[in-house]
Every structure is written in structure tokens, then in C-alpha cells.
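dude i think i finally got it to work??
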Amino acid sequence: MDPATEQLHYSNPAVFWEEALPLGNGRLGAMVYGGVRKERIALNEDTLWNGGPDFEFNPEFKEVLPRVRDFLRQRKFFEANQLLSARMGDHDNVSYLPAGDLLLTFDHGEGPVLDYRRDLDLESALAGVNYVAGEVRYTRSMLASFPDQVIVVRLMASAPGALNFSFSFQTPLEGETFSEGTDAVCTGTAPWKSRYGLIRWRNEKGLSGMGMAMRARVIAQGGQISASGGTTRVGGADSAVLLIAVRTGFRDYRTEPERDCRIISLRAKADLDAAEARGYEAILDAHLADYSALYRRSSMDLGADKEDLLPTDLRICKAGDHKHFSPALAALLYHYSRYLLIACSRPGTQPANLQGIWNRHLDPPWASNYTTNINTEMNYWGVECSNLTECFEPLERFLFELSEKGALCAEKLFGLPGWCSHHNSDVWRFCTAASVHGSWLYFPLAGGWLCRHLAEHYRYSGDREFLHRVWPVLTGCAEFLLGLLVKDEFGQWTTSPSTSPENSFQDPVTDTPVGVATGSAVDLTIIRELLESILELAPDLDADKASGRDALCARIHEVLPELKEPAIGKHGELLEFGEDFEETDVHHRHVSHLYGVYPGCEFNKDRAPEYFQASKVSLKRRGDRSTGWAMGWRVALWARFGNGNHAEKVIRNLLTPAELKEVIQTSQGGGVYPNLFDAHPPFQIDGNFGVAAGIVEMLLQSHLRTAEGAWIIDLLPALPKHWKKGSVTGLRTRGGLTVDLSWNGRHVRIKATADRNGSFLFRNGKHRVQRTLAAGESVVLER
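look at this
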């Protein structure tokens, strides 16, 4: 374990939630404060949301859509925006909720506390607290076990019989705490809805949200255990192991949840019974084996100096000064991102939401939902290239379920075949248009953006069974988008109405901000990309499993030549809304019109140099400083433009310390919190994943192909001048390579191993090497 790049550590307990350290097993999340006399462990379970199955769709939508299109044909953008916002919106998605807290109280006497340290070891996924009180050293080690589905706390003291503590639960839900034997138990019922400061505990039918249960059990060596009224007490123990289980009443997105907390509590008890039977050592060994199998596939070393051994919060404070910026912080961001994805997205769990799985608010920012106009996708930008492909499974399953629900959305709102989704979703697979302003409520292209991840997974894995499995999802989305297109006055296919997520322009007539136009750049780019992906992947289907393939491909071939292209403005910039409108906010956080540069690759210097250059102009105009997640996107974009120094500058901006506040306050001045969580602010986890994907793009790119079909592997395409020496292992490329890469000045070495047959063109500066590799074959190149 490299303490500079694989560990977060601090010399004081956390006071704010954003200072606490995250643990997770994909389903269960914990935030560990590391208190001395009072410890708080904030708990989450990834299926604990408001509400229930939701199959409501706005009946006016289909009727109003032609009228909005008529306004747009007449260039009445203000009227179109007003009508769409007022009549086509629907209800909103529900919120992701906290389960509650486990509170521990320790009796150490009244003496001073010395030699305090708390840390999170990314290599082992263990959180630790260590200090001396009353001449006794106390140690706590915590983990979230995926194999055993419990959170475990091991407590030790250097003196026999010195461990004295109690524990109990608290929850913001409607519930109660009590004891069963020596178990501490907390059950609760979620509110039906909690959004925009309004908490409704019951709906009009008197139904609450789902039930939830938390249980904790202690196994002590020595001493006595007693319990009453929901509090368990341990006295005079030598050491102890605390097991924590959380379960909810969620079944699936179609089915009403369980609301009987007694039944749910029995499931949590079963988790504790099984874990207790296994024992701590077996749980620890299984956890380390399971986690290490994923985490140790890839590592990054960019060098370190003595300041990289400082506590993490102090390192963050120094990061903004380029004189003190250490590339080791970029490596730490990369390792932390991989740790977080393993912790919040595992096979069988829900996909990572806006806060991963960690949330403390009953009414969280933006509902801690799945925001599918960038944020959900950004969570998974690095899943393939950083060699964590198993963590993709929750997003794949999410897309299958969303496509099922989205078929109703496409039919009821648009009268179209296939499926669609707008820009918000939740555990009930919400997919309809939301509410408020047009640029938030209307974005039926979200399904197309999400489908990019299915195509990318196939490009990395070459898994034909996967391709056959997801083909109906891909083609269903394509069928919808083809039906969504309308002809403009020039006979070109375009979208109407069209938005560019959350952004607006000045209406030429009223000079007021509006967000509804026709043919936004992001719409047209997503549609073109998905249709071209269908053509790219179709030949790999088995003929007997490709029903309707040829007819769909023929239709795509007819549409693509007439699909409207994006436009370039008077400043040489890529126009976000397809016309040279005055921008309402030149420095807006979203850069959706640059989708074709990253995460897409439609705009590149070989295929579309004019759009590539126009995109660079747009990015310069938007500026570097923005929300945390938006700066993560900018890192990846500058990497695609081959400007590593600019990408590093944005990384430094991203590492700006964010202000700690107990009350939620949103702003555009992003950064990171002391625990390295990304700050919009407030906390959004997508920035952690976005910047890590951008760092990979600085070192290795594989999104292009030669005219003959060979994958182009660009080595160090955007290396900052200060990153003079380094190495990275276990990166993955499209086409199926696993790459180890190192450099020292101008000396570059790569080892690439193919998992299937393929042709590759390796590029570093002006150097070119072509290789054809068989499955299992490796090549080593140096210069």
C-alpha cells in the first residue's frame, strides 16, 4: 500500500458528514466519523427510497406536443417554452433516503486523548481509528463485506478488560428502537415523498413508503453484555466485534414494497446470524479476497514527495497552488474513484446514484436520484477503462428495467414504438418528463445517452452473449429516436422540441431565457452515435438471433445522410442550440454540445476536424472553473484535445477545498470536501468518477479506429509537463487489451495483452507501431 496514493488519513475525528470516511459493499453504505468518546456511523441501504411503483404519465403530453412544434416552426421560442413547461411536465421522481445512524459511546475515563489517527486504506477497504486514552491504546477497524452482506466493526484495547461501551440506533424515519436479546434494533417506515422541503408521510390512499430495519449485535471476548430499551452495553471486555445489518421492504420496481417492519427485521437478523456463525476472521478473509480481486487489477504511480505524507485535508489545502501540486494527488483521485465504484456498484445492487450510496438527508439535494442527462453516465465513465467491468452490471440491469418502463413512456407520451427515458429516474425506474422548466423536464434523449454504455461494454469485452442480450434495448431506443425525428424546412431530419440539458438561450424576440428549440447539438450527436453504433455492432450478431436487423439497418442508412449536422457560430464555437442565439450563461456548468468529443468520439481531428476545433473554442469560452462534476468533464475534454497541462490545471481547480456546512446550499463553485468527496456543492459523487476517467484519458486513449478497422491506442496523449515519470498498470482498451504503461522522460514502455484476436495501431507522438495479436498474446514496445 502506497500511503501517498492509496490512503486517506486525518489527525482529528470528523465533525461534518463530508469529513467522515465512506465504506460500502454495493448495497450497504456507512460513513465513519471516527469519534473518540462518541462515535457515529451513518448508514444507508441502496433500495431505501420514497414511494412505490409509479406508472403515471401525463395524458396531456401527446396532445400538446404538436402545438409546441407549431410554435417552433414559427420561431416562437418563448411561447413554445412556456407551453412545454406548463403542460408537458409531470410529477417528479422520489428521493433516496438515509436509514439512520449507529451511535457508540465509549467510557475511557476523563484523561487526554493522544496519538489520534483515523484512516481509510484503499488497498484493503478498511477504515481505522487509533488513539491512546488513559494509557490504553484503542483500535477500531471497520469494513463493509460484500460476501457476508454486513458492516463489521472490530474493537480492541491494549489492556485486558479496558473496553467499555454502549451502542444504539437513531433514524429520521417514522420508527422505533428496541432490544431483542442483546441485539439493538431499529425499524422505520419511509415517507411517501420528500422533495423540495416537503415531507409527506402518507399518500392520498394512506400508504407510507417502504419499511426498513437495522440491527446490530456484539460478540465480545471477556466482560459482560446487557441490553434494554434499544441500547446494548458492553463492560470490561478485552475486545469485541460488532455486526451491523440493514434491510428494506423493496422487492422490484413493479411491485409494492413490504411495509411490515417485523418481516424486514427478520431478514436483517438472518444476516447477523449467518455472519456470527462465520466469525470475524472468516468474514475478514472473504472481504479481502473479494475486494482485492477487483481493486488490485490496476494501480497508478505518478511519484510522491514528503508533503504527500501529510494528512489528506492538509494536502487538499495545498493542491490549488501549482508550486505545491503533486501528481500523487491525481493518482490518489484515481485509486479513490475505483474504491468508491467497488463500494457502491456491485452485481445485484442498484446502480450508483447521485451520491453513490451515501446520503444523510431525508430530503436530499436533487433527490440523490439517477440524473441521466450526464450524472448517472459519468458515474460509469471509468468502469471499463479502469478494469472494473463487473461493477457495470447494476447499470446494465437498470437499463433493462428502464427500457421496459420506457416502452410505456414512448407509447403514452409520444405514440411511438421502442422506449425512452427523460433526465431523471429512481428505484421505481421513473422515466417520464419531470416538472419545472422545459430544459429540465424534457430530455427524451437520455435513453440514447445511456445506451452508449452498452455499446462501450461490448467494445471493451467483445462478449457476444452480452451483445445478443442487450440488442433489444439498443434497437428499441433506436426505434424510438427514429420515430422522434421530424423534417425541418430544409428537408433534414431533426428533433423538435429539443433541449440542451439544464441550459438556456436568450429568446430573440422577448430577450428572456428559454430552453426549448429544435435540433440541439447533443440531440443530434446522440442520435447519430446510436444509429452508427447499431450499424457497427449488427454484423457481430448471429444470423438466427438478428430478427429485424437488416430492416433496421436499411432504415438507418436512409436516415443518416439526411440527419441535420450541428452548426458553428460567429465566434467559431459549436452552437449548442443549432443557431447563433445569444447564450444566457457563457460559463454554464453543462457542456452537453461537446458530447461528440467526450464521452462520444464523433468529433475528432481525423473524422470531423471542423467540429473538433469548434468544440475546443466552445470549451475555452465556457471556462475552467465550475461545479465539481463539470470540472471532471472538462478534464476529460482537455485530455481528448491533447492538452495535458490544461487538464492538470482543471484537476487543481477541482481540488479546491469546499466549505463545510450543516445546511444544504447549492452553488457553482465546485471542489472537494476533506474526505475527497466531490462538491457540486453540495456533494455529488459523479465528479469523483469523472475526473478519474479524465486522468485515464490523459494517459491512454482507444476511442478511434483506422480505416481498416484496427483500434488506435494512443499512449500518453495528454501528459502534463510536470508528470515526468510514472506508471500505470491494468488499464483496459477497446478491442480487448490490458495495458501496463510506464515512462521516464522520453522513454516509454508498454506491455499490452489481448483477450481476443485483434489489430492495433500504437501511437506515441509521431511514433507508430502496428500489431495483430491473438487472444492471450502480449506485446512489449519501448522507445
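The chain has a mean pLDDT of 96.
im so relieved honestly
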